[in-house]
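Student: I would love a firmer grasp of how sequence relates to backbone shape in proteins. Thank you; the sequence and its tokens follow:
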Amino acid sequence: MGRLVELLDNQYPPIAIYHTKDIPEDSEKVAEEHCVIKSFFLPSVKEGRSIYGAPNDLRCGGPMSGFCISDSDKRMGLADAYSTMNGYFDSPKRVVDNYLDMLPVPFTTEDYIVFEPLSKTQARGIEPEVVVFFADPQHISALMVLAGYARESNDSPVEMRYALSCENLYLMPILESRKEDPKCIVGLTEFFVRKFVDPDKFSFSIPYSLYKKMDGYAEETFLSKGRWNKPLDPNGMPPRRPKD
């Protein structure tokens, strides 16, 4: 799978997300859950299952944009709901300017979408579109530093902004993958989803082109130095300067 996964030593192995016209072998049709985090993401990351689904298998409206299935006018209907009703933004215009317009759907597809462990995708000889880690703050921090290790741009290598969780997982990294110097996405920040995911875990989505680079230089980074994830040793701390 590569040195990144081995050196990071995260609790859960990464999963791959990709579209395909053919149902992968040894995969399961998505269960009838309202939220795709429950039906796609968690079974893949926690149980190692390969889950596939067609557009008409999805009961929630979020994946229509989140999985690049549809770019309908209904999405603009969120402007009032996310401002006046829910209070996420101070006005419908702010919803449009700071959220919807910032995350356009770059294409639409009727292909199956697949969530499965990255190792299974690689064994199939398929290059995924996105790689996602389900990680605690310590490992999120490590991934953030690794993403910036050889970054050409001087901006942040990671973005964390309001979006639906399915948009965090797939749409946002897909948009980044079309840029010369793509970013990683921290997600699962949506209030609804936080109610049933591990309280100490977030998602960290990486465009596959960037993941390959990170995996390629992981060995020469702090990940191989052996200190970044070690428990604090009070006796190993340098002595404090005496007070004057």
About this structure: The chain has one domain: 3-70+105-227. Strands lie at 15-20, 28-29, 51-53, 112-117, 130-135, 158-159, 184-187, 202-207.
